[in-house]
Design goal:
Order of helices and strands: EEHEEH
Helix content: 25-40%
CATH class: Alpha Beta
Strand content: 35-45%
Shape: globular
Distance between the termini: 24 Å
CATH topology: Alpha-Beta Plaits
Number of helices: 2
Number of domains: 1
CATH architecture: 2-Layer Sandwich
Radius of gyration: 14 Å
Number of strands: 4
């Protein structure tokens, strides 16, 4: 889920984006997402993880400043997720 947001009356050189990632809960996924998002040149303003009561599913939320247009941001985010998937495949043998 991607959302592009510039608040009324606020001047920003770069837009803020909201990122939501829903997944089966993995203890280090939030940290991996955070590191990969930063590595891709985005500044994280906020990040949090919410889990279901049974602890099986998680929702990771981020608000970032990205110095990209929406299409480029989407491509950068897809590349970040691909990097995480590759790392997890190598680590966990999935």
């Amino acid at each position: 889920m991607l959302a592009h947001e510039i608040w009324p009356g606020e001047k920003q050189e770069a837009p803020t984006f909201k990122i939501a990632v829903a997944s089966v809960y993995e203890s280090d996924l939030h940290d991996e997402l955070k590191a990969t998002i930063s590595d891709k040149g985005m500044e994280i303003l906020f990040g949090d993880t919410f889990r279901t009561r049974d602890g099986y599913y998680a929702l990771d939320l981020f608000r970032v400043i990205a110095y990209h247009d929406l299409e480029e941001f989407s491509n950068v985010l897809k590349a970040a997720i691909t990097d995480i998937e590759k790392a997890n495949t190598l680590t966990w043998g999935v």
